[in-house]
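Structure first, sequence second, as always.
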């Protein structure tokens, strides 16, 4: 209902509900409602609504920055014939709904973890990653990982297990993960944690990035 069509009592109730979102005390809300004119109550409601809308937009923008997506893709206009960026589209959707998302390409994540070990900051980095409601690890297995990197990556995945959501994209079938990680037992443990509560979504065909690389090669030839 348009606030202008509300009764005085309805406007006071609307103001009280909005004022609580700003953490005003009940006594302050009651005092203002008692002394304010109808027009003042309406103006206060519109002011708080506008402020809340601005805060929500700023929060979404902050979550998008913190996610560090390489590009912004939406589910609404997503071409499901080209699935490489589906994880990003889902991550963007989660951020838009107020969830904390962190996106990493696997190789970059491993390098970051190794640097953290060298600087004695691993626990700090792991705590930062653990703040995410959704962790996206992209291009898993595209580049072979040494045993140190594999163990660090497992540490991240293990900490995520049963505590928050995770998306892992890979072009390597599970049976070959031991080769990529250089440790069959570590690969098995990683797969167990991913699949215990997870869902496997398999796509055929070439990735968007591979096709773009081919197109660039043709244009350069």
């Amino acid at each position: 209902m348009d606030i202008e069509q509300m009764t005085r009592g309805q406007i006071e109730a609307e103001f009280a509900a909005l004022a609580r979102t700003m953490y005003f005390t009940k006594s302050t809300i009651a005092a203002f409602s008692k002394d304010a004119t109808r027009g003042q109550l309406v103006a206060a409601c519109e002011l708080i609504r506008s402020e809340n809308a601005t805060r929500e937009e700023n929060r979404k923008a902050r979550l998008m920055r913190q996610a560090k997506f390489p590009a912004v893709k939406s589910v609404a206009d997503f071409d499901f014939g080209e699935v490489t960026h589906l994880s990003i589209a889902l991550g963007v959707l989660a951020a838009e709904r107020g969830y904390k998302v962190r996106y990493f390409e696997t190789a970059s994540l491993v390098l970051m973890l190794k640097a953290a070990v060298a600087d004695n900051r691993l626990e700090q980095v792991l705590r930062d990653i653990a703040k995410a409601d959704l962790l996206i690890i992209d291009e898993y297995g595209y580049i072979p990982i040494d045993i140190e990197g594999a163990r660090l990556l497992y540490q991240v995945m293990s900490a995520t297990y049963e505590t928050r959501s995770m998306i892992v994209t890979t072009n390597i079938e599970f049976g070959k993960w031991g080769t990529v990680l250089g440790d069959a037992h570590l690969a098995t443990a990683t797969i167990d944690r991913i699949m215990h509560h997870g869902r496997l979504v398999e796509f055929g065909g070439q990735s968007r990035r591979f096709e773009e690389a081919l197109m660039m090669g043709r244009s350069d030839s």
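Margin note: Residues 113 and 152 are 7 Å apart (CA to CA).
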